[in-house]
Specification:
By secondary structure, the chain is of the alpha+beta class. It has eight helices and twelve strands.
Length: about 250
């Protein structure tokens, strides 16, 4: 990220982003919760990319340089919390499940950002309680550092449907399968199949946000059949890809 803006206070507000629009890399002195009421949100840092549909939010700790991007039309809701107020105890970006109650709390809290009344303070207290209870979700594409691993990940980012094994991809990147397998675990904290599944889900969400048909998404992201794609998607997000753009 070449240009970084420092914005001391993380804003609390609602705004819209058009499909493909992004916010330049920046950081805050505050923590921030970023929630997309519609569309798909991705947040990229030097450590990787976190992604979230409308049933998830992304926690961004104070001081983290990050760049949000919209996939599909994004109804963005931002909640800032002071640096000494960390109800989650998290020091790295994290994807959180958003219950129907937490969703309504976020929408209500960002509706009147200048309100300082007692009712709104009580709303924030309940919001913080719900945040603590939110399950954390492994929706992340970590960024590699080793050039051999970077080459393999770049191949699959460009074409998530590439069917080659890790050994075949390693041959193209000039690295052995055993070395790459070790690097996936040590650098990225996951196995090669786990990383590839995450990459495919990320691409799938982006395509669904652009109204690409489910069958085409399954094919272009490398699943053997639409039913295999639907099964993985439902286990990851709790609903089918066909229902994705019909969610509130």
């Amino acid at each position: 990220m070449s240009t970084i803006r420092h914005m001391p206070q993380a804003p609390t507000r609602a705004r819209t982003l058009a499909a493909g629009e992004h916010i330049d890399a920046h950081c805050h002195d505050d923590h921030q919760i970023i929630y997309a009421g519609s569309g798909v949100l991705s947040v990229t840092t030097d450590a990787g990319t976190w992604f979230a549909p409308g049933t998830r939010a992304i926690w961004v700790p104070a001081g983290t340089v990050h760049a949000p991007r919209a996939h599909g039309h994004l109804e963005l809701h931002l909640v800032g919390l002071p640096a000494d107020d960390n109800p989650l105890g998290l020091d790295a970006p994290t994807v959180l499940a958003v219950s129907p109650l937490l969703r309504e709390l976020i929408l209500a809290y960002t509706r009147a950002p200048d309100d300082t009344g007692a009712e709104r303070r009580r709303l924030l207290a309940v919001l913080r309680d719900q945040l603590r209870a939110s399950p954390r979700q492994p929706l992340r594409l970590p960024a590699p550092a080793d050039p051999r691993l970077t080459a393999v990940c770049a191949i699959l980012r460009d074409d998530p449907a590439d069917p080659r094994t890790l050994a075949a991809l390693g041959a193209a990147a000039g690295a052995g399968e055993r070395t790459l397998s070790r690097l996936f675990r040590s650098e990225l904290g996951m196995t090669f199949p786990q990383w590839r599944t995450q990459a495919r889900l990320y691409h799938a969400l982006r395509m669904l946000a652009d109204d690409v048909p489910v069958t085409a998404v399954a094919h272009r992201c490398g699943w053997s059949s639409p039913s295999a794609f639907i099964d993985v998607f439902r286990r990851s997000f709790g609903y089918t890809p066909g229902a994705h753009n019909r969610r509130p």
